[in-house]
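To make the argument concrete, we let one protein speak, a sequence paired with a row of structure tokens, as a model reads it:
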Amino acid sequence: MRQWLQRKAYEAMAAYTRKLQLHPVSSIAEAPTPFPAPTAIGRSSPSGFKLLALNNLRDNKGATKEKRRLGRGIGSGRGKTCGRGHKGQKARSNRPRLGFEGGQTPLRIRLPRRGFHNPFSLTFKPVNLKSVAESVEQGVLDSGDLITMKTLKDVGLVGKQMKDGVKLLGAGADKFSLPLHFEVSRVSKKAKAAVEAAGGSVTRVHYTKLGLKALTKPEWFAKKGRLLPRPAQPAPKMARQVDEVGRLPAPTSRPQPVASSNLEQE
């Protein structure tokens, strides 16, 4: 075995000597190499960028942490009590809930309450007569059609978030002279007087939130394969604030004044 190793070493030394005789060290060092030498991280491309390989993929430094091993004897530093000390509340597994102050009145209850929340409040999107008149002049709205809340939303006078309906306000009522017919949730006195003086009408209609969705987005119900909801009657306290129940789908004809008397009788 020893002789075989000596023979192999002699052959390797002879081959290296022949290589040096054919290619001197100076010519090898000065000869240009087509590619940069491979680095310890990964191979290099002709442009000098390091190429990724499967054996080079690893997390960034500090991205991973070794799991803390508890209860592995005294020599580990976290044996027996696992770093929690002896007894006490912090040594137990069942900790108190967040905000618990040992039984005394917690801070969230000691602080006084300010204001109140009215569950019956309604939020309406405002639309001014001036904006409606400008849309008619630009040809966006047709003065001969019934203007509903769906019409106002389609032309962009009302945004997407229509919570409880639309309220018609009287900004620009002095110059309003178009005989338009509206169906909205609420209307101010100034706006109603201006519309009626111009030969139009304003009908206050009642829709629930589901009814408003069916009014403005009937295609959603068709896509889901659902029927449109039935028109809902207003609450007794709200009956005086509306003239009639909203119709579904979106109406195109002008309102009939008979419905207001039926609501008052109910």
